[in-house]
């Protein structure tokens, strides 16, 4: 009798686990379809730039100062950091000549 009860309990557990797993659903597939159509339309209408150029030291310094905003400490840090890089670059070019 004990084996019969254990069998019923284990069967109920297995069926419950399977039912719980089947009840888990993923995102509906039709929701993803409009995004692919939108991407196809965007590719046809927009042109990408030819090549992405790296920023020069002056542009990096300007971006840093712009990001600093009104904070004087951050602006001073940007000035110091890019002044040091410019000095290193000038020293290496004079040594090579």
Descriptive keywords:
97 residues; mainly alpha
Structural topology:
Layout: H1 2-23, H2 29-45, H3 57-68, H4 72-96
Helix pairs in contact: 3-4
The total of helices stands at 4
Assess the beta-strand content as a share of residues.
Answer: under 5%
User: Span between N and C termini?
Assistant: 98 Å
Query: What helical percentage do the residues reach?
Result: over 70%
Give the topology string: H per helix, E per strand.
HHHH
Radius of gyration: 32 Å
Multimeric state of these chains?
Answer: single chain
Give the beta-strand count: 0
Mean pLDDT: 75
For the sheet with most strands, the description reads: none
Could you say which structural class the secondary elements and strand pairing correspond to? mainly alpha
Tertiary shape: elongated
Low-pLDDT parts are none
Describe the overall structure.
It contains four helices and no strands. It is mainly alpha-helical and 97 residues long. It has a domain at 55-97. Helix 3 (57-68) runs antiparallel to helix 4. The longest helix has 25 residues, at 72-96. The chain starts with a helix and ends with a helix.
In short:
It is built from 4 helices and no strands.
């Amino acid at each position: 009798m004990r084996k019969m009860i254990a069998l019923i309990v284990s069967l109920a557990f297995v069926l419950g686990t399977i039912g719980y797993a089947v009840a888990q659903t993923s995102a509906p597939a039709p929701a993803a379809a409009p995004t692919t159509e939108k991407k196809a339309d965007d590719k046809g209408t927009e042109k990408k730039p030819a090549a992405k150029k790296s920023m020069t030291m002056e542009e990096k310094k300007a971006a840093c100062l712009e990001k600093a905003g009104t904070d004087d400490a951050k602006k001073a840090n940007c000035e110091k950091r890019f002044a040091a890089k410019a000095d290193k670059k000038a020293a290496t070019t004079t040594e090579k000549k």
